[in-house]
Automatic annotation (TrEMBL):
Pfam families given in the database record: Ribosomal_L9_C (PF03948), Ribosomal_L9_N (PF01281)
Organism (species): Streptomyces iconiensis
Name of the protein in question: Large ribosomal subunit protein bL9
Gene3D superfamilies referenced in this protein's UniProt entry, alphabetically: Ribosomal protein L9, C-terminal domain, Ribosomal protein L9, N-terminal domain
InterPro entries: Ribosomal_bL9 (IPR000244), Ribosomal_bL9/RNase_H1_N (IPR009027), Ribosomal_bL9_bac/chp (IPR020594), Ribosomal_bL9_C (IPR020069), Ribosomal_bL9_C_sf (IPR036791), Ribosomal_bL9_N (IPR020070), Ribosomal_bL9_N_sf (IPR036935)
Record's function text: Binds to the 23S rRNA.
Keywords for this protein: Ribonucleoprotein, Ribosomal protein, RNA-binding, rRNA-binding
Residue ranges annotated for the Ribosomal protein L9 domain, each copy included: 13-40
Amino acid sequence: MKIILTNEVSGLGAAGDVVEVRDGYARNYLVPRGFAIRWTKGGEKDVEQIRRARKIREIATIEQANEVKGRLEGLRVGLTVRAGDQGRLFGSVTPADIADAIKASGGPDVDKRRIELGSPIKSLGAHQVSVRLHADVDAKVDVEVAAA
């Protein structure tokens, strides 16, 4: 099935790309979650709009990405959340929470869709998350989760 990606999907492509995937993957995962729309001749107009919006948000050069990487890796991000007696969180820390905490710590604006969590953060303590700044540049950010 031919689809148009509306968000970046790891291993598949970036927003605005037209890709061919298996029918079940598109019908059951990508389209219901809003990561893609079905390709149509009229949808080609949407591709240009999605690509223009992506260019505004993305970091254009590797030099800019390395500069932002330096700022992020030198940053200590603290996040306070509600937790139980055993150090387990009520819920989990989301990429949006981490993006807000980076901004509050004096870091650059980071798109929440660029933050990759290896597994959900559901406990107190120090965690490391990856921020995909450019196709070739990833930054590792240390996040300290503390009880409120």
